Amino acid sequence: MVGTSLLVALKPDNLPRLQEIGVDSRVFAFTFGLSLLTGVVFGLLPAWTAARAGVSESLKEGGRSATAGRSHQRVRSTFVVVELAIALVLLVGAGLLVKTFWKLRNVEPGFNSDHLLTMRVELPEARYKEVDKQTRFRIQALATVNSLPGAQGAMISELPLSGDSLNHDFVIEARPPIAPGDEPSLETRSIMGDYFHVMQIPLRRGRDFGRHDFDDKAPLVGIVNDEMARQYFPNEDPLGKRIRWVRNPTVEWITIIGVVGDVKHFGLDLPEQPGLYSPYTQINPWKRWMTFAVRTQSDPGAMGQAVKQQIWKVDSQLPITKVRTMDEVSAASFAARRFNMLLLTLFSGLALMLAAVGVYGVMSYAVTQRTQEIGIRMALGAQMGDVMKLVMRSACCWP
Predict the structure, then answer these.
(1) Is the pTM of this model over 0.85?
(2) Residue 262 contacts by C-beta under 8 Å, 6 or more apart in sequence?
(3) Long-range contacts: 59-66, Cβ < 8 Å, 24+?
(4) Is the pLDDT of residue 65 over 50?
């Protein structure tokens, strides 16, 4: 029970069916009964074997014939090998998982997570149904955040490493027609402010969004990531190309004005998907949620309350949730892997301990059975090292 509570305390936040974790009484009773039966059987078997031996057999070679001795030796050696092999397999698996986790920690996410604070805000539909009201709030909120000494803010609809996703099927202008239902899709992310500068995502080609692009009357423009350019424009420059959503005929053609580097959006161990960044002002009014990304000069965790106060200056009734540093977001993205690694490491350590106890018991019994032989060998001049080699050879079935 204590171990279960400890493991639950170390769980990742997104662990499913958490409330069902516990010790099942039926499984516990079955395991306890099986352990008890195993102990009784394997405890009585040596006693029964010893009880069958007669006095004359006990006086012959310490109670063992040569054939029986070799047979018992092979059985003991088999136990030693099997125990060590099982423990070794678990240890190797744990070691590989630790190595994978270590490499995962060093994967480049595509942006700089140092001194980066994030928080989520969702505008209520009752007060922010129109796009112009949403735009007014975003402009004012970013202005107040950027007025905070040592802070530079921007916003995005789907935060990197969060796993949040919103995609659209699309077509590319002047390409051969595609059968309905077979259109490709890409991830769409809306931004406001100097987002790529704040996140330090490199601009590969073209230009960043300008002030005029955030005008709701401006022509629709977008910036694609490297993966989008590789997959759909492998032998041509994507700048100036136009795409359009298939399921939303009210959206006009979107002109690609730039290409930025890939980011790890769904996890450090998952590849980036083709994506398109567009200004918040050029979307439908239903996308009322946003995540503020604020780069700070000091400790980002200590500035959480100050940034929230700046946002509340614009609208004090808005709930602000998921206030985390980007390092915390990154850690949460591989929390499940870390938990699996912890479990496998604990079980591997337990297996190693059980194997060590079992090997000690088998070897101790084997040495006890050959006490007379070892004494005679040492009386004839055998050294301690020679005896150790003899015992080890017999344990491993070596001749």
Answers:
(1) no
(2) 110, 225, 226, 227, 272
(3) 62/369, 62/370, 62/371, 62/372, 62/373, 64/369
(4) no
H, E, C per residue of the chain = CHHHHHHHHCCCCCCCCHHHCCCCHHHHHHHHHHHHHHHHHHHHHHHHHHHHCCHHHHHCHHHCCHHHHHHHHHHHHHHHHHHHHHHHHHHHHHHHHHHHHHHHHCCCCCCCCCCEEEEEEECCCCCCCCHHHHHHHHHHHHHHHHCCCCEEEEEECCCCCCCCCCEEEEEECCCCCCCCCCCCEEEEEEEECCHHHHHCCCEEEECCCCHHHHCCCCCCEEEEEHHHHHHHCCCCCCCCCEEEECCCCCCCCEEEEEEECCCCCCCCCCCCCCEEEEEHHHCCCCCCEEEEEEEECCCHHHHHHHHHHHHHCCCCCCCEEEEEEHHHHHHHHCHHHHHHHHHHHHHHHHHHHHHHHHHHHHHHHHHHHCHHHHHHHHHCCCCHHHHHHHHHHHHCCCC
Per-residue model confidence as pLDDT tens digits over 132-145? 899 999 999 999 99
**Residue given tokens 């073209």 in the structure block:** 206
Write out pLDDT tens, residues 166-177: 888 999 998 998
Pick the closest to residue 254 from 170, 324, 167 (CA basis). Answer: 170
Residues facing residue 255 across a β-bridge: 221, 242
d(CA 150, CA 296): 6
**In this predicted model, what pLDDT tens digit does every residue of 116-129 receive, in sequence order?**
999 999 999 889 98
At residue 18, what is the residue type?
L
Measured distance CA(260)–CA(202) in Å, rounded: 6
Nearest C-alpha neighbor of 228 from the set 172, 174, 175? 172
Strands 221-225 and 254-260: parallel
* Residues 6+ positions from 128 with CB-CB distance below 8 Å: 134, 137, 288
